[in-house]
Write a structure and sequence with these properties.
InterPro entries: FAD-bd, FAD/NAD-bd_sf. GO terms for molecular function: FAD binding. Pfam families: FAD_binding_3. Keywords: Membrane, Transmembrane, Transmembrane helix. The longest helix has 37 residues. 49% of the residues lie in helices and 20% in strands. The structure holds flavin-adenine dinucleotide. Flavin-adenine dinucleotide binds next to α2, β2 and β3.
Length: 177
Amino acid sequence: MEEAGGGPEAQYERLALDTALSTLLAVLLYVAVKVSVDRLRHWRARVSVLIVGAGPVGLTAALVAVRSGKVLKLTLLDERYRAALLCRPQQIALQPRSVRFLLALGVDFDNMEGCWDNEHFFTRIGVFQEHLLSILEQQKYRQEIRILLGTKASTRLPAVRAAAAGTLRVALALPGD
Ligand SMILES: Cc1cc2nc3c(=O)[nH]c(=O)nc-3n(C[C@H](O)[C@H](O)[C@H](O)COP(=O)(O)OP(=O)(O)OC[C@H]3O[C@@H](n4cnc5c(N)ncnc54)[C@H](O)[C@@H]3O)c2cc1C
């Protein structure tokens, strides 16, 4: 007469199935926990950023970095002093696409000297830089932002040395980049 629940073979099969299912469950659980922990770590990750050059490109890059919420510490340096940086008389013409991009970063064209023509915004480079610089300066109270004007990028600077050592993200915003 057969035992209740089947013979030894059937019990063996059930045991093998149980073992396979519990292993699968353990693997799935491990993968789910690992994926969640990695996502959380990635979400919380913060980097230090060094931007060399406070021209329109460098300042815009600084704003993008600050708005990303991923920056632990931002250092922006330019060899020009503030007066030399902001008195640049050349004109800059911002296309509609750039205007939309800059609006999303908090650039307030209504409070910037300049004029509109066919959805393009025209202003002096110095005016544009001053506006972006002022937005960054307002953020200083919320985030660690250092703006070093009159400072040429050189390997003597700790921030530049850290960038060379790979412990810092670096963006070069120099002409021609
Ligand atoms: C005469 C002239 C007329 C122009 N007219 C127009 C125009 O009508 N419309 C228009 O859209 N554009 C015009 N431009 C172009 C405009 O100047 C550029 O598009 C704009 O400045 C580019 O921005 P940028 O941030 O890449 O470079 P830049 O504005 O040149 O900024 C680079 C910054 O890096 C700094 N720097 C360089 N080396 C170092 C270093 N080793 N360490 C620290 N800081 C450093 C510099 O001091 C500078 O402030 C004109 C340019 C010139 C020269």
